[in-house]
Each structure stands twice: as C-alpha cells, then as structure tokens.
Amino acid sequence: MDQALKKEWLERNRLGGYAASTIVSVNTRRYHGLLVAKLHPPLEHLVLLSNVEEILYVDETAYPLSTLLYRDTINPEGYRNLNQFFPLPFPTWIFHVEDLIFAKSLVFMYDEQTVLLRYQILSGDENLVRLELKPLMAFRDFHSLGFQNDRLNTKIKPSAGRIQFSGAYFYHNAAIVDQAGNWYCRVQYPQEKSRGLDFEEDLYAPFRLVYTFIKGRTAFFCASLNRYEKVDPDALIIKESDRRNHVQHNKSPLDIRF
What we know:
This protein is mainly beta. 9% of the residues lie in helices and 49% in strands.
C-alpha cells in the first residue's frame, strides 16, 4: 500500500481540466480528483467529483472496490481486491472477486469537462451481482479543503438516466437512485500531511446508485458540466479513442511519452 500510494496517474483536457489520483484510487493530495474543472477566475480549478465509493455485492456479500484513508484506519479496503492497473489506453483497474473478473475504466474527455466511469464484468456469472456507487463531492478550489456545511445539503433533481446537483450533471444506467445524502468526514490526504499542511476534509455524497447486471455486463457513471438529454457511454469512448489514436498516429517516435 505504501508503494502504491506513491504511484499516480493524470488525465488532462484541452480546457485545462484534469483527473488525477493514485493507482489504488486513493487521493493523497488535495488537488487530486476525478473531475477537476478549469473555470474562469476567480474560481480557477474546482474539484467537483473528488472520488467514488464503490461496493460490489455478490449474492449479498459485500466486496469494496474503493479505498479511503482516515486517521489510523483504512476504510473501505478496496485495494485488497485490486489485481492490476493499466494506464493505457485509459486508466483501468482489474478486480478479482470470487469467480468474477471485474474491470473499471476512466475516460476523461478532451473537448469537454466530462469524466466517464465504465464498470464491466469480464468473466463470471452476473446474475447475483450488483454494484453500489456513491459520488464523493468537494465543490471547492483545488488549493483549499472543504468541510461539512449546509450549502451542499441540497436536494438532487433526478430524471431518467440523469441527476442534476449544484450546477453539475450526472448520467448513469443504474436501476435505483437513492436520494439520501450523507457526509464522509475527516478523509485524509497523506501527501499534504507530510508537507506540514492541513490534510483532512469532509466530502459529501448527495446520492447512491444501485446497478444490476441481469440484463448486461456493463454499468456506467458520468459526471459533467454539460447538460445532455442522455449520454451514450459507448459513443464517448469511441470519440475519445479515435482522437487519441489520431494523435498517436501523427506523432514521431521522439514525441511519444510513456
């Protein structure tokens, strides 16, 4: 775990926004996040979606996929179910849970302030599997830290496949949307602690999503500043894959970075 927390990944868009974290999905710095949008002054970079709590249920047994650090404890311990991480073509995590091989991929769009998370059952029986997600929101400048407050205790506005909350939009194919929000208090960022800076903050989960895999082997969650009637995750992945393939094709060997 100590070694994994030192290994970081970064995805950027042309607007100045980015997504960044560690290979075990633990945010160790205050400017880590899955959707950090570049806005106009004075806001500059805004950490919108900090992280996502992910729990995979197999026949009612819970297996965490995400990991959070608190004072003197790690909870949940999703890193224990993580088997592999690949940075290319998109950041991808492979989990082994019972007889399941489960994959999570992150696609950060280059031309807009949008991040897509795709979850797939690569092998195993999906009939008794469900996935629960809670987006952990910060809504603060990337140099600061946020704490529990009433400003984020606002109701979400759900519609078919879309949720609006505090100026951001979330798209999904979940079977259930639970509108009960809750706070995750005193989450720690060890890199800030090692620098002698403030290192704890509170994150807000405005809703919970429950996915079933009875009718398919893929689930998705998308956070964006763009309002759409609906989101086609496959179209977003193809669009970004084509762009990256085009860029890679037009680079000389000396331009390629790994």
